Structures are given as C-alpha cells and as structure tokens.
Amino acid sequence: MPTAPGPEVRGFLSDQEGMALFDAACQAGALGPVLEIGSWCGRSTIWLAQGARAASTVVLALDHHRGSEEHQPGEMFHDPELVDAEGKVDTLQEFRRNIARAGVEDHVIPIVAGTEQVAAFLKPDLGMVFIDGGHSLAAALADWRTFGTRIVPGGILAIHDVFPDAGEGGQAPYTIWRLALASGLYEETGCTESLRTLKRLP
Ligand code: MG
To answer: Global pTM?
Structure first.
C-alpha cells in the first residue's frame, strides 16, 4: 500500500485521486515510464512515484517550477512562501524536499522545463501521461497535442481538474479530455473526483 503525503506537502489533489494515480502508475508503469506534466510541490508525484516503484520504472516529472498563471503574484492561488530571492514563483526547492522526505528520489527524474521546450527531445514510449500543467486552454491543448499520441497501446492518459460543469472549475482540462475521447485513440476507464483516466487503444 502506498503512503499518502501529509498535509505539509502542498497540492491540489485529494487522497482518493492520489490513490487512483497510484493504481494507474502501477498498471501502466509496466509498459513504460510515467510522464507527469505539472508537478508543483510534488503531491501527485509522490503518488505516481510509488506506483512507478512497484512497476520498476520512473516518473519523469516535468515542470518549469515557475507556477501557472493562477499562481503568479496577485492571482488566486499565489503562495507567498513559494517565491525565490528575486520574487519569482519557485516550487523546485519545495518539490525536491518533498520527494526526498517521501523516500522516492530513486523513482523520480525531475525535468525543469516547459512542455514545448522538451517536446522535440523527449520521445520515449510512455506507459502513462498525467496532465496537470497550466490550465489555460493554450497550455492544456499544447500538453495534449504534444504528448497525447506518445502513450503506448494499453497505457494510460490521466487528466486532473476535469469539470464538465463550468460552475465548478475551468474548462480547459475538460476540453482536452473530450478531445482525447473524440480522437478515437482512447477509451474512458475511470473517474475519481476531478481525475479522469483513459486507456490507449491498440
Ligand atoms: Mg490539478
């Protein structure tokens, strides 16, 4: 059984959603590494890494660690404790500390970059992709378009913050979830709170 990260690990993922990510990583990790898009302070990474460990693989934890739009100073999800000496949002130090404390460093490879920056250089056959990066439509579309086709058959695409009701949350993750279904590349396999999982068809 995985260990849930404590409340000191900042993040926007419930333990139920974390458990679903763990299960997905255990399963899909057997097919290839897990790519996480948007690690923030490592809460979801810790769940994924425990699944990756069980599957003898790793999590490629992609995040520029400068926060999304909503984390910037003056925005709704800004955290004044997560800024560097120059006043820029910086979650890397907190991420490293949390990953180390959770004992999963051997199963996490942090990639400090944005999706479009690594797109041309990161081409493994991925067992799983977890999209939880920027929630603007442009950012979510770029994540889907870049990595949505790089999952092996039988692998899993997971998307966080999918809210079919616009009153509950932004619509970008929901939009890419619908695009994934409409692509014919995936079938729907799970729904845990706002976390949706899809399986890549043969
Ligand atoms: Mg999220």
So the answer is: 0.95
